[in-house]
Every structure is written in structure tokens, then in C-alpha cells.
Amino acid sequence: ADMVEAIEFPQLSQRYGVMGVPRTIANDQTAAEGALPESHLLNQILLAADRPKAA
Asked: Contact 24/41 with Cβ under 8 angstroms?
């Protein structure tokens, strides 16, 4: 897992459409955005893990 400062890496921010923080990306797919309850964040990450990685 990596954490990236959006202001320091504008190309990544643009690539992933970061408009607010926190924004969690799993397998190059958006898993969640904003401050979420732990159970919701975990559910979104598990769903992303079950999907094929984006090409």
C-alpha cells in the first residue's frame, strides 16, 4: 500500500480524478472516497479485490 500527497503528484491526482481526500484506490479502481466508517471502507476494498484488475 502506498500513500500519495495529491498536491505533490498532480499527474496521479488527475489520472484518478482526485477531487477530495481521502480517496482510496485499490487495483487501479476507486474503492472509496471521503471519511468512511471502517466497515464500509473494508467492504469496498474487498469488492475491488474480487474484480479483475483494470487494463
From this structure: yes
